[in-house]
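Field reference: sequence -> structure
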Amino acid sequence: MKSKFFERLMEIIFFISACASIISVILICYFMFVNGIPAIGKIGIFDFLLGKDWSPSNIPPSFGIFPMIIGSIYVTAGAIVLGVPIGILTAIYLSRFCPKRLYKFLKPAVNLMAGIPSIIYGFFGLVVLVPVTSKLFGGTGNSILTASILLGIMILPTIIGLSEAAIRAVPESYYEGAVALGATHEYSVVFAMIPAAKSGILSSVVLGIGRAIGETMAVVMVAGNQARMPNGILKGIRTLTANIVIEMGYAADLHREALIATGVVLFVFILLINLLFSVLKRKVI
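Structure field:
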């Protein structure tokens, strides 16, 4: 009788927890769309999404976020180019090649990277990456390149952790079968294990993209924050998240609504990425 009571109690607690998560998502969606969509209507959807001028203080003001959309895409693409190959190769090494003694040090280090706050990454980028890129390539160092390198480092824990788990989840019979047919250890891992884990690896990349496009503080500190169309990877740029953080503190009226609408655009990007992740996850199952 007592055990049934606790079972029923735990069912109720689990149900309330699940409802709280769903309600939170619904409330966030409601807030974003109710406050953001009217602003897009006032500005005009094409002027808002495709406008190249963001000048809230002008008369009349301009609220075109196209430079910020392009900026977010550029730094995210740069992070993918730099971070994905390193992350996947590291995951392969940790799962199939790393000696156990070395693994005891490398794995905690990767886990520690995942727990470092964004602001610490930002300080690292500001103190180390900005001067280095300025010295090597010229300019101020606050650029698309610097932001891409920093985001590439920040997405490594996500890609490494999930890719390693996906590779370790492949049945050992794949490897043993390849070795039994005369393949080397390296050939068996690359051509038997990795293809079998590709859906999990793709999922890790998708989540890494979500981390990169949603990052704010670190990007604000190294990207230059110039609300204009990018003119080369060594020039400054402003992302969607940076635009919201920089101006929300003093924005009012239509300016504030336009920033919330910017959040709606970012929210749609994140939803699309999560939808892609769900599709890839179903393939894994």
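Note: The mean pLDDT is 85.
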